[in-house]
Design a protein that fits this description.
5-stranded parallel sheet; single chain; mainly alpha; 5 strands; 20 helices; 47% helix; globular
Length: 474
């Protein structure tokens, strides 16, 4: 009997899983493994909690066969491969800077024993790095990338194998629920069944089954109105698939294939939704070609920009984090982030603009905070989204576009429902008045803070700094 290892990472599902298919086709039994990497889990928080829920659901899907270890992946995977004499370790190809370095270390540790790391597929419809322009260079702007992405196309979803022969874990890494010496705690079948069947329904549910349910509910109920309502946080009609995509509980190919067969496949809502998937793939492609852009300005045009720091700025940033800026639309978003580990995309842009343009703080400060708080925190999408707002990234919003937190709120939360949902101090204000409590005689009667900055003045200051930076660059 031959055994291969299937090392799960950002692909916590069994359907449409190319690496799983490759493992099943090349061996008699497959040992499913997940490694809790201390480097990735060091900051803890909601992402770790969300990951554990997804692992529990995956364990249930494997009948309790999933082995979970904690430690340096290079050491853990090499040890496991030697213990079961696995010649191949199958994975989905990674595209983040750290993931690529980690996989190279694993490959080097496996090689002396005649073992290999086999990469099949990726978390994307089209693997990052595959789409190039006619000159053989990566695309730097979204629109031509999107056209090339559509023209390139993607395979149909892979079928889930009917009968997977899961290998039994060696005694030292038993798949029971006890903690083994020198390793992590493997999740047993009972815990997985509970996570899959007894957790609260809705967007917080984790796992492959929950992802498919959420996708099909959106397809049925909200796709038709997506083009018109996607920017409305008060209506909450977006797909909420971002965290399912982050953990690979559903593959974008599955989404694209089912959408193509839907009666509304050619509608404006479908077109807009596919464009959002294309943005996700574009940002992953940018990060693949420019790893430094994870935490540095992609474009150097604003290298000389003057940003604020120091104790006073730290106090302002803390008010932003706590949702106490005095700007209701911003504060509602930041409070939703802290409560749910999620925020509507329109509100993400407005809150990011407030930090960068009103408080004059360099974007990585906000990007790091978002990654710490978001259940769907994805390095490529999050950090390049921040750069779009900051004006330093590919396809960047012009720096002189400064989101007005009041007019944005009135436009996209016209009745004030979103603000009242997250700011109880303003629940007594009716309609759009909730966006401007300073205009109501009783606006501050319930403890809501006054504005920490003058938006009009900070907008002018942001533009002054922008002009100085441009002058320095010239």
């Amino acid at each position: 009997m031959t055994i291969s290892i299937l090392w799960f990472r950002r692909d916590l599902r069994l359907a449409d899983h190319p690496a799983l298919l490759a493992a099943v086709e090349s061996t008699d039994e497959v040992l499913p493994v997940f490694v809790r990497d201390p480097v990735l889990l060091a900051r803890g928080g909601v992402r770790v909690e969300r990951l554990e829920s997804s692992l529990a659901a995956l364990s249930a899907s494997t009948g309790g066969a999933l082995v979970v270890r904690t430690g340096d992946p290079a050491e853990v995977i090499a040890e496991l491969a030697a213990s079961v004499d696995a010649r191949r370790v199958h994975v989905s190809r990674e595209s983040t800077p750290y993931g690529r370095r980690r996989d190279e270390r694993v490959r080097e540790r496996l090689a002396p024993g005649g073992r290999e790391l086999v990469e099949t597929g990726s978390p994307y419809a089209v693997g990052p790095g595959r789409i190039l322009n006619k000159a053989g260079e990566p695309y730097r702007v979204f629109t031509p990338f999107s056209r090339a992405w559509h023209d390139h196309g993607w395979p149909q979803p892979g079928v889930r194998p009917d009968d997977i022969a899961w290998a039994e874990a060696p005694r030292s890494v038993s798949s029971g629920s006890r903690r083994e010496p020198g390793g992590g705690e493997a999740i047993g079948e009972e815990a997985g069944e509970q996570a899959a069947g007894e957790r609260a329904a809705g967007e917080r549910a984790a796992g492959e089954r929950a992802a498919l349910s959420r996708w099909r509910a959106f397809l049925r109920d909200d796709l038709a109105s997506y083009a018109d309502q996607r920017d409305r946080p008060d209506l909450d009609t977006t797909s909420r698939l971002s965290e399912h995509l982050k953990y690979g509980e559903i593959h974008p190919r599955t989404i694209l294939a089912e959408l193509a067969e839907h009666p509304a496949a050619t509608s404006e809502g479908a077109r807009r939704f596919v464009a959002e998937l294309a943005w996700r793939e574009f940002y992953a492609d940018v990060l693949w070609h420019q790893p430094r852009s994870a935490w540095r300005d992609l474009r150097d045009a604003l290298t000389g920009m003057d940003y604020d720091d120091g104790p006073e700025t730290e106090t302002l940033v803390e008010a932003w984090q706590q949702g106490l800026t005095g700007f209701p639309f911003v504060d509602a978003g930041m409070r939703q982030l802290r409560a749910e580990g999620w925020m509507h995309n329109r509100v993400r842009m407005v809150t990011a603009s407030f930090l960068v343009k009103d408080l004059h703080v360099w974007w990585p400060t906000g990007a790091r905070y978002f990654l710490d708080q978001l259940r769907d925190g994805d390095l490529a999408s999050n950090n390049h989204g921040w750069q779009w707002v900051a004006g330093t990234g590919t396809d960047a919003s012009p720096y002189f576009r400064v989101f007005n937190p009041v007019t944005q709120g009135v436009r996209f939360d016209p009745d004030g429902d979103y603000v009242r949902r997250w700011i109880p101090e303003l629940a007594h204000l009716r309609g759009a008045t909730a966006h401007e409590p300073w205009r109501a005689p009783d606006g501050y009667d319930h403890g809501y803070p006054e504005r920490i900055v003058d938006h009009a003045e900070e907008r002018r200051e942001a533009l002054r700094r922008y002009e100085r930076a441009r002058g320095d660059a010239d």
